[in-house]
Write a structure and sequence with these properties.
The longest helix has 27 residues. The N and C termini lie far apart (about 45 Å). The protein has nine helices and no strands. The chain is mainly α. The protein has one domain. The protein is globular, with a radius of gyration of 17 Å.
């Protein structure tokens, strides 16, 4: 196994996951409301989607990449609507109601929502394709072992970021009472809705 491909994938996965977007905001809010596990599982949903897009770029599956890019308006539309739904739901929910709702949906719901949101973001595949091409990694399709190791690195790197974020935010969880969580819901809901509206406007 070429350890260099694992390290490159780890750096790529970490770098793509680190910028705080709607997934990061969701992870932070869920960590504060329900604990580190909920935040981490939310992040792992995004990490799985990152690994799938990394596979498309790493294995040189240009036909899938081109199809996703050609359908980016529909993907933005679907993702934008879902973000607005999550944002408004978070914005209007009271902390106690939110915790009950999250517990009912469970970790599967937390994982699935971020997985879906990441998959419907066409910029993810574009970012992977650009980074892989820039680093000369686009030809790993000829070496499936290297491609697998690279994608594994992407997943580990992305998961590492979510572990750090949920763990770091979890330290401050006990300092938030119901009033503080109401503010967290309001701010995070407004931010997530804003991301959703931006995605919808970008389709025009």
């Amino acid at each position: 196994m070429d350890i260099s491909f694992l390290l490159k994938g780890l750096i790529i996965g970490f770098s793509i996951a680190a910028p705080v977007g709607p997934i990061g905001v969701l992870c932070i809010r869920r960590t504060l409301s329900n604990g580190r596990t909920s935040g981490l599982v939310s992040g792992l949903g995004a990490a799985t989607a990152d690994a799938i897009y990394g596979s498309i770029a790493g294995f040189g599956l240009a036909f899938i990449s081109n199809f996703l890019v050609s359908q980016q308006i529909w993907l933005r539309l679907i993702g934008g609507v879902f973000l607005c739904y999550l944002g408004l739901k978070t914005l209007l929910a009271k902390p106690a109601e939110q915790v009950i709702s999250d517990k009912r949906n469970g970790l599967v719901g937390a994982y699935g929502s971020t997985f879906f949101l990441t998959l419907t973001n066409p910029m993810t595949i574009i970012s992977f394709a650009a980074i892989f091409a820039g680093l000369g990694l686009a030809n790993t399709s000829r070496n499936y072992v290297s491609a697998v190791v690279l994608v594994l690195g992407v997943f580990i790197g992305s998961a590492l970021w979510w572990l750090i974020l949920s763990g770091g935010v979890g330290i401050f969880r006990e300092k938030f009472n119901s009033h503080g969580l109401q503010w967290v819901n309001g701010i995070s809901g407004a931010i997530i809705t804003g991301f959703g509206l931006f995605a919808l406007l970008s389709t025009v």
